[in-house]
Design a protein that fits this description.
The protein is mainly alpha-helical. It has helices spanning 2-40, 43-56, 60-63, 66-89, 102-116, 120-146, 150-169, 180-196, 200-212, 218-230, 234-247, 252-265, 268-281, 286-303, 308-328, 333-357, 363-393, 398-410, 414-428, 437-440.
């Protein structure tokens, strides 16, 4: 038993020794591959250097050696240099880097090398590495935002600020020295990246620091709104939004944020003025007409029973905004459908009155019934061509198909109604309808 335990201990010691040795060997392998890359510019050699360096850094011996950190940081710096060159040659199109967050990782290694080193030469090399790297940390963040890799862009811009502070503290020369405006831009993009990544806890202190520091940009107020609305604190969100709107009344960015705020709060009356303002700023923006039409449609539905005259005004406003949107984009399926739905829903609501009149068998009651039925059918007839055009524009729109099924049934056209039913079932099953019903019928 004692011999077995001794053998196991020797084996374990041998494995540990081999691992420690492999870390140092991997570092040598990384340095050799990197040296080859600097002379040949062969990216394969740079990838070999990165792969070996990552393994080397797992070794505790390597982790405690400031020179090792400098070596690996130099390799990672070469990676971001190569990436910037490759992105430029690729006309800024997204490409896969040899190492994710290479600039951020290189910066942290340089800073750790500085802290590990007890020699001025080592600290000087670390600071020089950081100074050379600074511009590419920002480049890494910019590319990551362009690629919608927001965790990477947050890491880059946050590291950029950290590096500036580190250099300033330790006697290095930062590119942002004496230029607080550009440094605040880095802070802003770090905060923006955090919001885009929905990391509101990370974004909040960054935006608040910029806000209290007087960073004069509309994005601060938009960012703080997004932070607090993301944290379900609509009172705080509304506070910063209102302040921003007062400070930047002509900025459409905040205007659209305000529109979304009122939509979320279901404040329909306030929305109409804001949307009218937005349309004046962007008269070609079809979605604004669609949204304003929808708001008036909802206001119509909420008032049609209690205040028919006001409801009629809302109905006409909804109709005119949907039509105005179609003047910008006459083939917009959503607007075409919305116009049809406006009339369809009004007719559907009137059928409730028809049911009540159906219980009145007097001559006068029957006359009212027939008159209302005629009015309802006329409303469905007005809605029909809109749904017809909407179906031709988008034959897979479920709501359009449902409305057509009902209209065909009211017209006693059961073949067409059943065809709509079959198409509804296909769409619900995830199938795609290739050709419009009305196109097939030559209508």
């Amino acid at each position: 038993m004692r011999n077995f335990l001794l053998s196991a201990f020797i084996a374990l010691f041998a494995i540990s020794a081999a691992f420690a040795q492999s870390g140092e060997d991997k570092l040598k392998e990384a340095s050799k591959a990197y040296s080859s890359f600097t002379s040949t510019k062969d990216p394969v050699k740079l990838q070999e250097a990165v792969d070996a360096a990552q393994i080397a850094l797992q070794d505790p011996t390597v982790q405690s050696d400031y020179k090792a950190h400098l070596e690996v940081a130099d390799i990672y710096s070469a990676v971001i240099n190569q990436y910037v060159t490759d992105r430029t040659l690729a006309n800024n199109e997204p490409i896969e880097p040899l190492l994710a967050q290479a600039a951020s990782k290189a910066a942290k290694l340089y800073m750790k090398a500085y802290n590990l080193s007890d020699k001025k030469g080592g600290q000087r090399d670390a600071l020089k590495g950081l100074e050379t790297l600074q511009g590419n940390i920002s480049n890494e963040g910019i590319y990551a935002i362009q690629d919608k890799s927001y965790a990477d862009s947050y890491a880059a811009f946050n590291t950029s600020v950290e590096v500036h502070e580190f250099l300033t503290k330790n006697g290095g020369k930062s590119v942002y020295e004496g230029d607080e405006s550009k440094l605040n831009d880095e802070r802003y993009y770090a905060a923006l990246s955090a919001v885009l990544n929905e990391d509101y806890n990370a974004a909040e202190p960054l935006f608040l620091a910029l806000y209290s520091g007087g960073y004069d940009d509309v994005g601060i107020y938009d960012g703080l709104y997004k932070v607090y609305s993301g944290k379900d604190d609509m009172e705080q969100a509304g506070k910063y939004l209102q302040e921003g709107r007062e400070k930047f009344p002509d900025e459409t960015q905040l205007l659209f944020t305000e529109i979304n705020y009122y939509l979320a709060q279901d404040k329909l009356d306030e929305l109409t003025d804001k949307l009218e303002e937005a349309i004046k700023a962007e008269p070609e923006n079809v979605s604004l007409y669609a949204t304003l039409g929808s708001v008036y449609d909802r206001l119509y539905q909420s008032t049609r029973d209690e205040d028919p005259e006001t409801a009629k005004t809302y109905f006409n406003n909804a109709k005119s905004n949907y039509e105005a949107g179609l003047n910008v984009d006459e083939e917009n399926a959503s607007l075409i459908y919305s116009l049809g739905a406006l009339y369809f829903n009004r007719a559907a609501n009137m059928t409730n009155q028809l049911v009540e009149l159906g219980n009145d068998f007097s001559k006068e009651g029957q006359a009212k019934y027939e008159a209302l039925e005629k009015e309802i059918n006329a409303e469905f007839d007005i809605a029909f061509p809109y749904f017809q055009k909407a179906e031709k524009t988008d034959p897979n729109n479920l709501n359009t198909l449902i409305a057509l099924k009902e209209i065909f049934a009211r017209r006693d056209n059961y073949d067409a109604s059943n065809e709509m039913k079959a198409r509804i079932e296909k769409v619900q099953a995830g199938e795609k309808i290739e050709k419009s019903y009305f196109a097939e019928q030559g209508m």
